[in-house]
Amino acid sequence: MNTKVTACLLAASFAGLSAASTQAATTLRFAHFFPAASAVHEDLYQAWAESVEEASGGELRVQLFPSGTLAKAESLYEAAANGIADVGSTVQGYSAGRFPLTQVVELPGVAPTAEAGACVLQTLYDEGHLDEEYADTRPLFMFTTGPGFLHTQDTVVETPEDLQGLRIRRPTALVGDMLTDMGATPVGMPAPDIYTAMQRGVIDGVSLPWEGVNTFRLNELTTQHTQVPFYSLGLIVTMNQRTYDRLSPEQQAVIDDHSGMAWAENAGEVFGRLDREGKEKAIEAGHNIIEIDEPLSHPDWQQPLQNGIEQYLTGLEERGLPGREVYQAALAARDACTAEQE
């Protein structure tokens, strides 16, 4: 009888230890809007999750929610701030007017490649230029897409005049203003909605990086491409501050080690590679690609692009924000980042 009792007590003890061990592991809900089958999900977000789990010895587990399943693209930052998601990744520009200084990095010419853009945006944050815009979450790392070009179904766009009357999906209000000045009709929508909108004839084209054209399968619908950089889209991976504060010091150290420039650069490399792959697929499909060299000094494109830059910086000044100061810091970071990467 005593032997049976002892065995039962031991079994219960082991079960309790096992349960305590299980409870010690913290699960972080990580939400983003890229498709689950995309390389961005697999090579960036999943890679980050696996690295965090390994570095924490299993004490931190990351549950990924791709494709806007936990929160829609335009609500992901708010979801991270409110704790609906523990970690969220989204485009800052989807929250119109909320990150005005951050969006300086989106201006034409600031981020010539995804690799440079990630370095520029993370540098601006590390130097303290953007602190007030992220007081409600704990940013982990920031990055950008490559330059956003023009992609249309069948209209050849060689000059701004060719945009007259075209309905072009714009990623942010900043890009929408430039398109309007060129005679196009900007249409706002998150990237996951573009394919259906173009398929139904709601829009005639998009402004997107090559990565986005490939990720969201737009090479199936567009055949005309004009490489003139309207913008580079800023993105962030950020964490709910209360979630971070609840972690043990050891777990916090793991998150800290998976933040900052090193992971920004990882993201830049992923997006840079995907840009090259997206363009290559368009070439293989026989699409028409027009490349505008030095667009900021090009006789046709210089003025509308410069007008867009000036209009945005003036708008920041009218709001009492140091837009030109941040813009100059971004250009200095661009020069330093590109020099390091050569």
From TrEMBL:
InterPro entries: DctP_fam (IPR018389), TRAP_DctP_sf (IPR038404). Residues 1-24 form the signal peptide. This is TRAP-type C4-dicarboxylate transport system substrate-binding protein. The keyword Hydrolase does not apply. Pfam families: DctP. Keywords: Signal. The lineage of its organism: Bacteria, Pseudomonadati, Pseudomonadota, Gammaproteobacteria, Oceanospirillales. GO terms for biological process: transmembrane transport.
